[in-house]
């Protein structure tokens, strides 16, 4: 099997998705450690990290979806959208996940990314507000260090976002 699907079958589509690059007042970005990946529950240096992201429901606008995803994944949507990446960014799942991840219906995801300013308090961030929890830990980091984290196969997307969202990584 390749990232297009099984031989003789039509290629698998990309799942529509939104991503949230959430900046605190210091200009740092929030990342969460995936609770379903190796290293979860261990020291903060372990595991796979990412920014909040998730699927877009039918008939849902991407800007509404990104706020819903924040509520579901970090327990708060205390954020203001500052901007959006001008292009949809796509990635393929690794070959081992094609046909398995997300019910085997997708080859990867195409994402609309948003830069948001967090206007809440850190104690409002609750990873247990939605079950199953997407993340088991979170932290604020400096934007340029994001691709250096273990972000798995999403590293190329994060490199683009670090470059293009750098103007948002300033103190408010």
Describe this protein's structure.
By secondary structure, this protein is of the alpha+beta class. The chain has a single domain, classed as Alpha-Beta Complex (Nucleoside Triphosphate Pyrophosphohydrolase), CATH 3.90.79.10. 13% of the residues lie in helices and 28% in strands. The protein is built from two helices and eight strands. The strands form two sheets. Strands 1, 4, 5, 6 and 7 form a five-stranded mixed sheet that branches. Strands 3-2-8 form a three-stranded antiparallel sheet, with no helix packed on it. The chain is globular and about 50 Å long. The termini are far apart.
Residues in β-strands, percent: 25-35%
Nearest-integer average pLDDT? 90
Helix/strand order: EEEEHEEEEH
Secondary-structure-based class equals: alpha+beta
The figure for the number of domains is: 1
Total number of helices:
2
